[in-house]
Amino acid sequence: MFPATLSAVARAATPAIAALVAAGIEHEVVAYQHDPRNESFGDEAVAQLAADGIVAEQVLKTLVIALPKGLAVAVVPVPHKLSLKAAAAALGVPKAEMADPTAAQRSTGYVVGGISPLGQRKPLPTVVDTSALAFDKVLCSAGKRGLDVALCPEDLIRATSAVTADIAVTG
User: Nearest Cα to 30, choosing from 122, 138, 155?
Assistant: First the structure.
């Protein structure tokens, strides 16, 4: 079902993959061709993976948000936008805004476009949109541009100690 599964040697190529291996979570590493000039990372993944039968809503993007006292992660389907108000409510805070990209990179240890909800330098509170539970498998960044990991949404939620909530809005 998933394209370009990499060999076991490459499976621990990023901290995200190493975290899944260490936790014994079943997953598949999925590579796609990343164009370094492209800055619409999620859309690029969806476009390339759709040819292999992946539904756009199955591909999740990792967004780092700033809370009143620190950072957190919101995970939503690529075609949707994040409701900052809903994410804040799910995380039990009054407000949230998008984090500064430099702060996101420094905190997670990943570059923008390759930020994974898994294996972060400093694990952040995480909320995953409930729509992920509609699929047997979802894909999220494996910690490098052009590299995703496919896994059961329940495993993603468990591995990140995430809460789930309706945080995605269409449009």
Answer: 138
Model-level pTM? 0.88
pLDDT in tens, the chain (171 residues): 444 444 443 445 899 999 999 899 999 998 777 666 666 666 666 666 776 778 889 999 999 999 999 999 999 999 999 999 999 999 999 999 999 999 999 999 999 988 999 999 989 999 999 999 999 999 999 998 888 999 999 999 999 999 999 999 986
Continuous segment of H or E residues that includes residue 66: strand 60-67
Instruction: Locate 72 and state its tokens.
Output: 């957190």
The span from the CA of 44 to the CA of 165, in Å, is 26
The type of residue at 134 is: A
